[in-house]
Amino acid sequence: MPCWPDIARDGVAVTLLICLSTPLQVVLLTFFARRAGARAGDYLGFTMPRKRDAALGIIAVGILTLVSDGVSWLLGHNIVTPFQSEIYRTASTAGWLPWLWLTIVVMTPIGEETLFRGFLFRGWHRSPRDAWAVIGMTALLWAIIHIQYDLYVIGQVFAFGVLLGWFRLVTGSTTLTILLHGLANGEAMLETVLALHT
Questions:
Q1: Could you tell me the residue range of the domain that residue 56 belongs to?
Q2: Which of 155, 168, 14, 2 is nearest to 84 (CA)?
Q3: How many CA atoms within 13 Å lie on the side-chain side of 155?
Q4: What is the tally of structural domains in the chain?
Q5: 41 lies in a domain?
Q6: Mean pLDDT of successive 10-residue stretches along the chain, which has 198 residues
Q7: Of 58, 112, 143, 153, which one has the fewest beta carbons inside 10 Å?
Q8: 43 lies in some domain
Q9: Which of 93, 104, 149 is nearest to 14 (CA)?
Q10: Radius of gyration over alpha carbons of the chain, in Å?
């Protein structure tokens, strides 16, 4: 019987777990948002961003990615983590690559952003004075759940979480953070493909 570390590096298992749990999570968070006495879409930040905000977000993600990859290269860290390589390899072997792409680029951002930049951010953000504390706390909690990575990569996840939190604050849109998260994950998948096939 496979143990948890084996399952956590199995691309098929990761895909199934995320694709089955994300819809349930979003439904539950929508229910809890309604219980808070607000329209769920407003509470969770499901509003379309302005084109200018989306463009700025894409540029910011691009810059952070370049800086992160550059620092990793200078410090001798692999840009593609063993976790990324392993889930890609196992999903490819099983013929599940399209499902893995869907999971990493679409489902994961929807689930994580709805929880961290949607539900928790809105629930904790009470006044302009607490904005950076809430951004930091949601980024920290989000980084901590990425236990598949080492501390260096978790630090990178935290930095990206701060950026996402800032965009949630200034635009009010979790839809934007979902899109930016998906963009970053898609770029990471492309890096994985290049690393494994060159």
A1: 4-36+49-197
A2: 14
A3: 7
A4: 1
A5: no
A6: 60 95 96 89 96 98 97 95 96 96 98 98 94 98 95 97 98 98 98 90
A7: 58
A8: no
A9: 104
A10: 17
